[in-house]
């Protein structure tokens, strides 16, 4: 099945918004980890909202370009440099809880929670009617729509319980030590598998938008926004 190539001009427009959103997402991981006993991210300069601290030439630049070329501009997967978390320094492990990595649940889920909270707050701003029906007002409104969309996308996809996405931290936090360590050890392999699977499904479905648009429209409507804005 043919799929439309990604609009590179739109991609360039979205990149700064994506970087700002990701910096907030990663900062929240680092902040919660430090509060729960693991200062690793703070020690490595990741407890910051500076987007540059969360960029990786391999994950944020080289990998997306490679995926774009390999799929003939049909699919892209943007990644930031993962926040370094040492589960053995977290409170739940140090105190010998029955589920030693229970605190990983809060460290993982705070990222998507922040994204969905930002989307919800901006939706309230839109629904307040604060943007005037002028050229500049509508341009700003369109930009806000893009920020909401990016935060919804990151929040929803990261909630999937698939390693190494944030939703998998819920599983890791509930597992006994041996099984949790197994997942953490092979997360890189699982990441490659997830990206490959998503790319294949996106190509077969006719584009990543065909997969994500229905759940995004549902979330968009849940926020009280008009789904027609996504067309």
In short:
The protein has helices spanning 8-35, 40-43, 57-70, 91-94, 103-127, 135-158, 168-174, 177-185, 187-205, 208-222.
Walkthrough of the structure:
- The protein is mostly helical.
- It has one domain (about 10-230).
- It has helices at about 10-35, 40-45, 55-70, 90-95, 105-125, 135-160, 170-175, 175-185, 185-205, 210-220.
- The longest helix has 28 residues, at about 10-35.
- It is globular.
- It starts with 7 loop residues before the first helix and ends in a 9-residue tail after the last helix.
Instruction: Count up the domains.
Output: 1
Measured distance between first and last alpha carbons = 21 Å
Spell the H/E element sequence.
HHHHHHHHHH
Q: Judging from the principal axes of the Cα atoms, what is the shape?
A: globular
Tell me the structural class: mainly alpha
Largest sheet: none
What is Rg?
19 Å
Strand content: under 5%
Count of DSSP helices?
10
| Beta strands, count | 0
Overall pLDDT, averaged? 86
Question: Uncertain segments of ≥5 residues (pLDDT<50)?
Answer: none
Helical content (DSSP H or I, runs of 4+) = 55-70%
